[in-house]
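Recap from last week: sequence in, structure out.
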Amino acid sequence: MSLRKPFPSQHWLGWFGTGVSALVALWAQWLLLPGLALAGAAVDWAVVWVVCWSYQRSWWSAGLGGLIMGLLWDSVTAPLPSHVPGLVLAGLLTVRLRGYRLLRSDPLAVGLLAFAMAVIQETCMALQFVALGNGNVQEIWAHHQKVSLASGLLASLWTPLAWWLLHTWWKKTDTLG
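Predicted structure tokens:
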């Protein structure tokens, strides 16, 4: 009985594809097409990518994925407030919550996780805005409620498709973990 081992080039291709998918997720943050925006908020593709990445990985991998995605997102936007805490928390909570199999279907579970993680990411950002004193607290929270709900809803709708594409790629290239 022989176990199939990937060719080294196949393994590197998997990691290359993972890097490209992270960069595409960052690029898609600015893409405002019909169906990708609701009430002035867009799909938080960084959260979608972190949830897809973290869903079947270890704590260490999930935290590192959230950290790298947060640093990349901060590098193309203003570093304050930072996206790092929310994305690291999203990765770690995804690992923790995936064990609670409320649903037997992985695409539905990642959709629900993406909704929750988008709300958590937006809450981390709102808390940083409040801590930095960038505006009236009531205005920040009113805006936060609208943006987090819309972003979470859109993320939950698009995450199953993104998860299926990425999961299929990671299985084919043996980079699933």
